[in-house]
Specification:
The protein is mainly alpha-helical. It is built from five helices and two strands; from the N terminus they run H-H-H-H-E-E-H. It has one domain: Cytochrome c-like domain (Cytochrome Bc1 Complex, Chain D, domain 2, Orthogonal Bundle). Helix content is 47%, strand content 5%. It has a two-stranded antiparallel sheet. Strand 1 and strand 2 form a beta hairpin. The radius of gyration is 18 Å and the shape is globular. The termini are far apart. 24% of the residues are buried. InterPro entries: c550_proteobact, Cyt_c-like_dom, Cyt_c-like_dom_sf, Cytochrome_c550/c551-like.
């Protein structure tokens, strides 16, 4: 009986460590924003690239590289983080998006989402608004 319990504990421990490793310390990927208007240092309150096909293309790739590990491919959450397809389209969702990517999310001292916006985070305002532009295209009501 102890052998069975030990075996089960070993299997569960291995699965748990694999799951943690799969969403663990993964370095953010640089985003090439060539073709987008530079936005400067002051954060825009609304997405200046909404409907911009170049921004949407850049945003789709940037999301896959930097966000999908938690929010799921195609923004379809696997349960680790919110399903971003449910984020309100347009300016209505910009405020929440901006708040979250700039400040991250911390609960009870645990980081649920790191800060992604520069200067503290790795991504430029251009890259983040490009991601938001793509999210608008996959939003569901």
């Amino acid at each position: 009986m102890n052998i069975i319990r030990s075996s089960i504990a070993l299997v569960l421990g291995t699965l748990a460590s694999a799951a943690v490793h799969a969403h663990g310390d993964v370095a953010p990927q640089a985003v090439d924003t060539t073709g987008l208007e530079a936005l400067g240092d002051d954060w825009r309150p609304a997405n200046p690239y909404r409907g911009n096909t170049v921004a949407i293309r850049i945003g789709e790739s940037a999301f896959a590289q930097n966000c999908a590990r938690c929010h799921g491919l195609g923004a379809v959450s696997g349960g680790i983080a919110p399903d971003l397809r449910k984020l309100e389209r347009g300016e209505a969702g910009d405020e929440w998006f901006s708040e979250r990517v700039r400040n991250g999310a911390v609960r009870n001292g645990a980081v649920y989402m790191p800060k992604f916006a520069k200067p503290e985070g790795p991504l430029s305002q251009e890259a983040l608004w490009a991601i938001r532009s793509w999210l608008d295209t996959v939003a569901i009501d």
